[in-house]
């Protein structure tokens, strides 16, 4: 692409406000997925047994209704009896008792629960069987709720976005590299070579995708890299057809015939004339391919053939949310919301890039 064409495309894109809004949205989602899990205060794999399937809320946890059951479970684990519990602001005062003298080391379970800070023993009975303890109460926020294991859903969605975006971008890049090269060569060659290359493409189209993935699983273990290989091996087919069609249409134009008449090598014509003039449809198709790859990964993960624990993706979270739809609808709404926003933004950005990179446009849009 020439510098003049790049500058013209940049001006067109910056004047397209919906496309720039979509670009800003995508950058925001990518940035949130990269640094967000470090800012939520919850590791993605952290399980809170006391907060299973908690709904989305801006309120801090534990609430008054949650505090007593949590303390009762902790006392049971410490093999103590909870005689009394009173909350005073950000601190809780406990009276614990046992049939035998209490070893203060069992109080370490309080900070390990992630609900309370280090405890302080305020009073001890002479026989050591009763303790009065004070401990700070930590504030936990679950803005998008928790899942069936008690993990923070916001953190899980942001961590899953890293995997989903990685799969989408990597598979799309592979499809671009293979599909653009294959399609451009096929369109430039024409004749029998073009027909042969297209028949090979038809044979690959006829292979069932799920059967192909299952065959890979026979020899390799399911995981992220297997999803990348399987998706990249299939998604370049459409890109090759798009580039071939565009190249065939360009062969009849005057600038293309002039390059052939001047004796330019086929490789030079391919790089300087064919590929740059198909960038508009290529970019538009690529932006649509990213959400398609993410949805395809979701399908594989739903079948158990995609991303495996402890890693996760939007597809895995959507599959988990679908199974818990009646009891916890937010488990489906949260990852689906991220996916829908990403899909809409990519579609709108693709339209804007397709128009901005179209070399046949004679003037900038107003």
UniProtKB/TrEMBL annotation:
It holds the Pfam family OppC_N. Keywords: Cell inner membrane, Cell membrane, Membrane, Peptide transport, Protein transport, Transmembrane, Transmembrane helix, Transport. Residues 161-350 form the ABC transmembrane type-1 domain. CDD domains: TM_PBP2. Gene3D superfamilies: MetI-like. The keyword Magnesium does not apply. InterPro entries: BP-dependent_transpt_permease, MetI-like, MetI-like_sf, OppC_N. It is a multi-pass membrane protein. It is found in: Cell inner membrane; Cell membrane. The chain crosses the membrane at residues 20-39, 163-184, 196-218. The keyword Cell inner membrane applies. PANTHER family: OLIGOPEPTIDE TRANSPORT SYSTEM PERMEASE PROTEIN APPC (PTHR43386), OLIGOPEPTIDE TRANSPORT SYSTEM PERMEASE PROTEIN OPPC (PTHR43386:SF2). Belongs to the binding-protein-dependent transport system permease family. OppBC subfamily. This is Oligopeptide transport system permease protein OppC. The lineage of its organism: Bacteria, Pseudomonadati, Pseudomonadota, Alphaproteobacteria, Hyphomicrobiales.
